[in-house]
Amino acid sequence: MKSFHVGLIGLGNVGYRVWHNLLTHRELLAKKSGKEIEIKKIAVRSVEKALKQGVPPGILTTDWKEIVNDPDLDAIVELIGGIDVPYEIITEALKKGKEVVTANKALLAFHGQQIASLASSYKRRILFEASVAGGIPLLQAIQDGLVANRFLMISGIVNATCNYILTEMTNGRMSYADALKKAKELGYAEADETLDVSGEDSAHKAAILCALSYRFWPKVEEIYTSGIQSVDPFDIQYAGELGYVFKLLAIIKKHQDSKEVEIRVHPTLLRKDHILSSVSGSFNAVIIKGDIVGDQLFYGRGAGGDPTASAVLSDLVELARYPHMEYNPRLFFADEQTEYKVMPISEIISRYYLRLNVVDKPGVLAAIAEILGKKNIGISSVVQPEVSSFSQGVPLIIMVHDAKEKYFKEACFEISRLPFLKGEPIVYRVEDFHVQ
Ligand SMILES: NC(=O)C1=CN([C@@H]2O[C@H](COP(=O)(O)OP(=O)(O)OC[C@H]3O[C@@H](n4cnc5c(N)ncnc54)[C@H](OP(=O)(O)O)[C@@H]3O)[C@@H](O)[C@H]2O)C=CC1
Ligand SMILES: N[C@@H](CCO)C(=O)O
C-alpha cells in the first residue's frame, strides 16, 4: 500500500488527539483512504512536553520550517492557532507543493481569500472542516451534500465555550467565571478565551460559512458581533419565565432579490420549544435552509480534542484518497467574489426583549408604550416581576413584535431619556429564523 506522509505543526488539545487517533485508527484509515497515512514529523514548542505525551523523540522538531521544507511530506496540518505564524506556515507550505489542513478559523476569516487563491494557483488543496462546528461535517455538507441548493439561511450555535457557559448559567449550576474556567480546562476555549466570549470566534466561523455558501468573504469588521460577557443572570431568569432561553447565535440570511446578506453574532432569545434551545453544553447545532432541500439540522460536538481531531482526520483521508487534483472544486470561491455585501445591522428586522429599570409609579407603562407606538412597534407582552425592594427601581420587561432595528433603537434612545428610568435599557434580539 502507498503511504501518505504528513507533517503536524502544533501538539496541543487538537494536535495531540490527531496524532493519537491516527495511531489508534491506522488500519481503519488505511482501508478507507487506500493509503497508509503517517505522521512523519511534528513541530512543537516544547519537546519536553511532547516526550511526556509519549511522542517518539525522532519525529520532533521545534522548527516548523523543517516540516514545510521536507520534500518527503505530502501534506502539513497546522494546529497552532493565531494568525501571523500560521499564515506564513500555510503560504510557504503551498508554495512548496504541500497540501494543507487547518482548523484555524481566525486565520481563514481574515486571509481565507488570499490563501484559497494561492492554493488554486499552486494547484494544491487547503481543507478546513474542523474550523467550523468542530466534529460536525458541516462544510462538507455545504460543499457536497447540499451542493445543488441556493442557501437562504445558515444559522446556529457555533461556539462550544459560550454554549457551555450559557447552559451552566441557565441551569444555575455555575457562575459565568466558573463555567469559563471549566470550558478552558475541558479544551473547548481558544488559547485567548476572549475570542470565544466576545463572539469573535463565532464571527470568524460565520465569515467562512458565508464564503462557502455565497462565494463572498465578508470583512470581519463588518460582521455585527456581540458576546456573552455581560449577559446578566437576571435576564436569563426573566427570559426563562417568559418561555425563552439565551443562546449565542451566528445568523446568516440571504435576502431574496437583494445583494445583501445579513450576518451577525449576538446573544439571542429562542423559544424554549425551538429545537436549538435543547442544544446544551459543548454541542453545536446549525440550521441550513436550502431552496431545494428545505430545512436541515446539523448537530454534534463543536469543540474538544477528539471531535475536532475527527474532522481533521476526515480532511487528511480526503487528501490521501484523491492526490493532486488539477482543479479543486472546494475552493470554487477562491478567485472571484460575488457582488454581495453585508446588510447594516440597523436594517435588520427582529423581535426584541427590552428590560427597563423604572420607578414604580402610574403612567410609566403608558409613556413607554406611546414611544414604541409612535415608531409603529407593537408590544407582544409586558411583565413586571415583583421585587422585594423598590429603592433601586423595578424591572419592567417588554417583548416587542418584529421591528426594524434602527426604529427600535431610536425608540430605546427616547425611552432612555424618560425621567423615571433608572439605568440604561437592556436589549436582546429574539430569533424566529424567518427569511425575507
Ligand atoms: N480546541 C478546540 O476544540 C478547537 C480548536 N480549533 C483550532 O485549532 C487550533 C489549535 O487549537 P488547540 O489545539 O485548542 O490549541 P492549543 O493551544 O491547545 O495548542 C496549540 C499548540 O501549538 C503549540 N505552538 C504554538 N506555536 C507553535 C509553533 N510556532 N511551533 C510549534 N508549536 C507551536 C502550542 O505550544 P504551547 O503549548 O507551548 O503553547 C500548543 O501546544 C486553533 O486554531 C483553534 O482555533 C478548532 C476547532 C476546535
Ligand atoms: N473555542 C472554540 C473551539 C471550536 O471551534 C469553541 O469553543 O467553539
CATH homologous superfamily heading of the largest domain: Dihydrodipicolinate Reductase, domain 2
- The CATH class name of the largest domain reads Alpha Beta
- Number of individual domains: 3
Bound molecules: NADPH dihydro-nicotinamide-adenine-dinucleotide phosphate, L-homoserine
- What is the tally of helical segments? 15
Low-confidence stretches: none
The CATH architecture of the largest domain is 2-Layer Sandwich
Number of strands: 17
Kindly, what is the distance between the CA atoms of the first and last residues, rounded to a whole number of angstroms? 53 Å
* Biggest beta sheet summary: 11 strands, mixed
- Would you give the CATH topology of the largest domain? Dihydrodipicolinate Reductase, domain 2
**Residues in β-strands, percent:** 25-35%
Shape assignment: elongated
Structural class: alpha/beta
Return Rg in Å.
24 Å
Average pLDDT, all residues: 95
Helix content range:
25-40%
Pfam families: Homoserine_dh, NAD_binding_3
Domain ACT: 353-429
Organism: Methylacidiphilum caldifontis
EC number: 1.1.1.3
Write up this protein:
This protein is of the alpha/beta class. The chain folds into three domains: 2-136 and 306-331, Rossmann fold (3-Layer(aba) Sandwich), CATH 3.40.50; 139-301, Dihydrodipicolinate Reductase, domain 2; 345-430, Alpha-Beta Plaits, CATH 3.30.70. It is built from 15 helices and 17 strands. Strands 7, 8, 9, 10, 11, 12, 13, 14, 15, 16 and 17 form an eleven-stranded mixed sheet that branches. It has a six-stranded parallel sheet with strand order 3-2-1-4-5-6, sandwiched between helices. The radius of gyration is 24 Å and the shape is elongated. The N and C termini lie far apart (53 Å). Residues 134, 159-161, 188-190, 196, 201, 302-303 line the site of L-homoserine (HSE). Its EC number is 1.1.1.3.
